[in-house]
């Protein structure tokens, strides 16, 4: 089963998922991981008093930290917004502007697929939420995004099924912040 959080990591560098899956390594996480955890904890506290009126959506219910699973994927979505005719999955990001990376987009699509099944409603959008005052941006999901998602999932399955040590497409800047940089042996 693929952990949805690993999809983003696979896109950042496929070797991260390899190390998590096949190696018994306890990585030392950079400080930004701790800061991100603190940010998410704060958002969970704030969730209790929020009405989400700022989103201007026909909201029926908002689910916080919703566990989702099917036969191939599982994970915990930060927020699932159930509207009258659709669902929108939202992710909290500890950043100043709602900038969506490819990895975050693929991760949100995975949550959206599972949330869509769980709530029996379609999805066509995802959302990033930044800062404590709910800066947000809604992004449309295109058919090309779904095709790319399928390719990523198939690549992950192939790597896991065949236990392939993947090529690293990460930049040196990405490698510097990686928790597995001491094990990869590709960078100085």
From TrEMBL:
Pfam families: Cas_Cas4. It is an enzyme of class 3 (hydrolase). Residues 5-184 form the DUF83 domain. Its EC number is 3.1.12.1. It comes from the Bacteria. Its cofactor is iron-sulfur cluster; Mg(2+); Mn(2+). The keyword Disulfide bond does not apply. Keywords: Antiviral defense, Exonuclease, Hydrolase, Iron, Iron-sulfur, Manganese, Metal-binding, Nuclease. Mg(2+) or Mn(2+) required for ssDNA cleavage activity. CRISPR (clustered regularly interspaced short palindromic repeat) is an adaptive immune system that provides protection against mobile genetic elements (viruses, transposable elements and conjugative plasmids). CRISPR clusters contain sequences complementary to antecedent mobile elements and target invading nucleic acids. CRISPR clusters are transcribed and processed into CRISPR RNA (crRNA). Belongs to the CRISPR-associated exonuclease Cas4 family. This is CRISPR-associated exonuclease Cas4. It comes from Campylobacter porcelli. The lineage of its organism: Bacteria, Pseudomonadati, Campylobacterota, Epsilonproteobacteria, Campylobacterales.
